[in-house]
Amino acid sequence: MTVVRPAAGASASLWERDEEVAAVARAVDGLCADRSSSGGLLVFRGEAGLGKTTLLAETRRLAEARGCTVWSARGGETLRSVPFNVVRQLLQPALVSMLPEEAREYLGDWYDIAGPALGIADPGDRQADPQGVCDGLVAAVRRLARRDWPLVLLIDDAHWADQETLHWLAGLAERLDEMSVLVVVTRRPGEVSGTSARHLDTVAAAADGPVTTLSALTPDATAGLTRATLGPHADAAFCREVWAVTAGNPYETVELLAKVQDSELEPVEARAGELRELNRSARGGGLVARLEELGIDATRFAWAAAILGTGISTDLVAKLATLGPDDARRCAELLRTARILTTPDPATGRSADGDLEFVHPLIATAVYNSIPDALCTAMHGIAARIVTDEGRGAAAAARHLLEVHPDDDEELVGQLREAASEHLAVGAPDAARRCLERALEEPPRPETHPHVLYELAEATFLTAPARTIGHLRTALGMPGLGGDQRVDAVFRLSQALLHNDQLEEAVRTVEAEAARLRPGPARMRLQAVHFMWEGIHAGEATSPDRSRRLADLAATCTGRDNSERALLMLRGFDALMHGENAEEVAELCDRALVNGRLAPGLGWTDTEWGIELLLMLANAYAFTDRLDRAETLYNEALRAYETAGWSGGHLALAHAYVGLGHRRRGRLKEAESSLRESLRLAERVGRGLPLYWSATCNLVDTLLARGHVQEAWEVAERYGFAPPYPSTIVLPDPRSVRGRLLLAVGRTKDGINELEAAEKAAAARGHHNPVLVPWAADLARALSTEDPARAARLAVDVRRQAERFGTDTAIGEALRCAAALETGQRAVRLASQAVTYLEASPCQYEHAAARIEYGIAARSVSDLRRGLDLAVSCGADGLAERARAVLEAGVGPA
């Protein structure tokens, strides 16, 4: 690399950084070119002292010279346990500068979701969804970028950022093409692992080009820097020794040269041997010795500053170091003169956090590590009290409480529980987990212990179901959890077992607890949960009396409380799956509502029952042709989760079932849009989960209905829509949909095998509803040539089951199947009957298909044209193309 002397006024650490500075300049120019320009992301990686911070300072200088708004933040080694620490540094100053009404207006619907994480709004009274908070923070940047364009965000030492910030940064990196903002990130290699490392990998993958790794200075650059600092008379041997002593590390080189100047060392070969001793005094043990030379008061002041880590104000440090105001100010000045502490640059936006900061993270680390262990622990305990007394809350004190040795302190347990509650309310369950795990080490008193375990299970539920299982089992084995809270704990344990793919154990757990209880609402709730988990298990061969037992129990229910309402919903769904009369299914569901609406405590965001039960209710309406009511419920779910900021699995499922509603209605374009959004959200949650299958299965089904066969196949291949299938029920039946897909792409034998597998699975469960598990009609069509007798038997069975179920859609679809196997006037007559039923059905795609098939069979131009119009309005491109082809070929009278 060519050695180019930095411009006047630029930092010495910019030597040999021409390419990096040029990349920054190009990115800033691209950002400033147009308000509609897409965002950019640069990532610089380098070991400590290689000039990452200086490069960000140059980025700020270049950006501000172009009129950009620049906000910055820095990770801290001792602050990684503080959730949202770095993102708050970055965005909070801009939002705090607004009036509260203005901040609410800018964040809009995201204010109540992202505001608490940013520290500008009080948290709600329920646990926040971490993904929703992340999305809210991304939305905050998008909106602020429009106001403050061109906006540049600088994040230094990202390897030390808290996990919540890195989650947000990874989400932002993937959405930068939607906003005009430049993000520049620096980090050290290594340093992090686990989830934080994965987030940083996501950031690196989204960068504009490969991550730039900073290198040490060459001997020539070190010589140039030495002479620029000490004068041109510095001889070559002295310059070479500067490079050898510092290994070309820019920070160490600058610090060493400052020491040379302070000591008035002559830069000649004869004095070069003194450089190593001078360098030792600028780092590690030498820095500590230099600190001690400033006196005990200055040392205590520096230690206190290192303990606080952030928000370092002279007054706060004085309290922690037990110094008077005058002594504290004197110490602060001594440490500034010694280049250990400095006054923050107001331009960085971090000055509001305190009036002091360490000159470099390496110095902060060295000072912190120099504190004797026992004293460090004691100072953290004092800092926790000071922070609490300052009114900063339990969550702010928690970082210090985590460092205190266990001492059977019930008050500390209470503080950590309160901090955990605050963390959960702002969407930081991992921070809550750390607090509660530390509380268990204290340990809590026996009467408190099971409650701490229960709260810990709440914190780990979304991310570590296996841990949650252990915590809840231990809590339930202790005295202390009773009444409704014990029932809640059993239900939560069963959910965790379900999410951990231990569905049979979930069923047994609930069954055993229900057997312990006396008759009443609590027992009925657990009985309902028992039936719910059994009912969604796709692999279970139904016990002969399960449906009868559920029917008998539901028959006693009037819907007077939520346990009875839940049983009515479960009975309705069970009857739906077995293909019982649709009117009776709908009547059971209606009895579970209060004035046609969900009862209090049974809402989409209520946690007492979970989403599975309400989806059973909504799907029972959807497949009994009560689409108005089903779509009302699906859309209520979507609004509820968006309003609450639940952007994870719940929102993914809501979009999937809104898509299913559109698909049932025949709005195929809208269905595809909703299902693609569901799949996008499901990808973030994780593949293989039931919600992922719901999105993928329905998207493939919708694309097939649209006639986009190749696209459906590509989706199936890309997202793993193939055996093995999930252990929970997915609607419509995945085997049936995949069988239809295989037939559509010409793999007829594979398609027949898949549909026959669907037949066996449905028979094992007693699922005889031809609308939900539509294998038989497709198999009949596939076998019409090679085995017409079996095809005819299948068509008869489909019609019998459809007439038993009794909806217009089911009967119309059965008649379409029968017509497809016939010829002549019998085919015309059956097709005409199918049109009659499907015209009365809310499912317009099926009506369009029946109308076109009848038009072809009857050679009716008017029916073909009407079918074409319906197909076009549905977005069924394949149907429309078929109708046009027949019309263009010409049809005569029947």
Automatic annotation (TrEMBL):
Q: So which residues are the signal peptide here?
A: none
- Gene3D superfamilies referenced in this protein's UniProt entry, alphabetically: Tetratricopeptide repeat domain
Organism for this UniProt entry: Streptomyces violarus
Give GO cellular component annotations, separated by semicolons. cytoplasm
Q: Which residues cross the membrane?
A: none
Q: What is this protein called?
A: Tetratricopeptide (TPR) repeat protein
Source domain of life is: Bacteria
Q: What does the UniProt keyword field contain?
A: ATP-binding, Nucleotide-binding
User: What GO annotations for molecular function exist for this entry?
Assistant: adenylate cyclase activity; ATP binding
List, alphabetically, the SUPFAM superfamilies matched. P-loop containing nucleoside triphosphate hydrolases (SSF52540), TPR-like (SSF48452)
- Which InterPro entries does the entry link to? AAA_16, P-loop_NTPase, TPR-like_helical_dom_sf, TPR_rpt
